[in-house]
Amino acid sequence: MSPTAPHDDADPELEHLLALYTQPRPEGRLQVELCMVASLDGTISVGGRSGPLGDPADHAVLGALRRHAGLILVGAGTIRAEAYGPVDEGVTMAIVTRTGNLDPTAPVFRDGRAWAIAPASATIPDGIAVLRCGDDDVDIVDAVSRLHEIAPQARFIHAEGGAVLNGELIAADLVDVVNLTLSGHTAAGPGPRVAMNATEVLHRFTPEHSVTRNSMLFTRWRRHRD
Length: 226
Ligand SMILES: NC(=O)c1ccc[n+]([C@@H]2O[C@H](COP(=O)([O-])OP(=O)(O)OC[C@H]3O[C@@H](n4cnc5c(N)ncnc54)[C@H](OP(=O)(O)O)[C@@H]3O)[C@@H](O)[C@H]2O)c1
Fold this sequence. Notes:
The chain is of the alpha/beta class. The chain has one domain: Dihydrofolate Reductase, subunit A (3-Layer(aba) Sandwich), CATH 3.40.430. Helix content is 20%, strand content 24%. The chain is built from five helices and nine strands; from the N terminus they run H-E-H-E-H-E-E-E-H-E-H-E-E-E. The chain has a nine-stranded mixed sheet. Helix 1 packs parallel to helix 2. The chain starts with 11 loop residues before the first helix and ends with a strand. The model has no long low-confidence stretch (mean pLDDT 96). The site of NADP nicotinamide-adenine-dinucleotide phosphate has 31 residues, from strand 1, helix 3 and helix 5.
């Protein structure tokens, strides 16, 4: 996944699609929205990257969600796997890490908009701002409840993977919305699925939209906790 600039060419169908993701969000607690692209056979990466699964419309949706949220939550594994560029103005990126294995010279840290979210035990490289949550692990419930401290502009938390972080968010029942794009590919192979965690939990979501464009199916699902 790579950040994308707003698109320029008139494309009413794409505008309609993007509008589905940029509606106002509830006031108060920031809702957590998982955003992933997956193959028909359930993998989220091919050759270790999500890029082969995406297309221009998927990238446009990703960019729109990032800008509308103003806050991206992502695992350090994804940062190390994907070539993340600089973070857009008005957006804060929160990178969850236990080891502090982050490269402060990477483009994602260039403008000071990317923070490490790390436990007290982690050594974070100089030059990377850090929000401390937890002692030896990031307490993900605490972290999610405190992200507004580093991103007061946020409308919601756009969580974009990967599988390990998603698994923790789901196991803790923190996910309010799943923005899942099904890519018209199969891949087999050893790639991870959308979420992986030692704890198995079954949570119910109901569909809010499903839109087909080219060989992609864009879906949005909302959690019902009652
Ligand atoms: N298709 C898609 O939409 C999509 C989106 C995103 C990613 N991906 C793919 O997903 C893969 C990466 O996923 P992944 O599961 O390996 O990695 P990940 O979930 O992005 O990151 C895992 C890392 O996050 C940190 N972490 C997670 N929970 C933590 C906690 N409670 N406390 C402290 N640190 C914690 C640890 O970082 P440290 O190791 O630094 O301690 C851990 O190794 C890549 O292949 C990427 O291409 C696909």
